[in-house]
Amino acid sequence: MSDSQRSDSQRSDTQRSDYATKWGHSFLPCDRDFSTIKQGLTDRDRIYTVDEIKEALMDCPSSKKYTIIDITGKNVLDFKDWFPKFYQKTAISEETKGKQVSKKNKEHLSISQYHQFNFDRKNPGQIVTQPFIDSLQKSTFQLRQTGSAKVQPPTAKAYPAGKVPIKKAKLDDVKKLVSYIPHEVSLKDGSIVKPHVFYKNLLKWPTTGSADDDNDSDSDADVEE
What we know:
two-stranded parallel sheet; 9 strands; disordered N terminus
């Protein structure tokens, strides 16, 4: 974003505009905080667990500006099944709909192609995109399903069991690395974390694939503490 005074979102009583700036060109105050976070992580030779990542974040000079929240599978809502009830998976711009525009010239909604998104409360489900911020070129997309009911936020959990299934092939790779993981790591605050136990529990997680794959994953997950 070339204008450092512009925020990444502007609102009025009925309208809102969101901006997707180019990487490295936002000039927002948070950029400096992100750079200190990145530096704090790269300064560490090895990181084995989430607790070590959290400690690195809290050691950053900008740590007082943000709060770290642990996210688990129980915090993730089921948007995958909820979305099709109210919105279309794909959309063609209103300007290129109809037979007067050839198929190859129709404009399909592709988020990465735009840097400004405009919403109006008077037209729910409609989004007006612009390829650049304040561009004269605009495209209008209708995302709401025709005749769909009033949108209600999702309430169902995406992972009722609380654990996100992992591909069996990835767990197989983790098994090969377990022998190189230390049993204990001391954090700067004096506390002790046990990466070996963390990965042992990880190997027992549910996997994506056949039932036989899941059983194999569980039976091979015995690791010495």
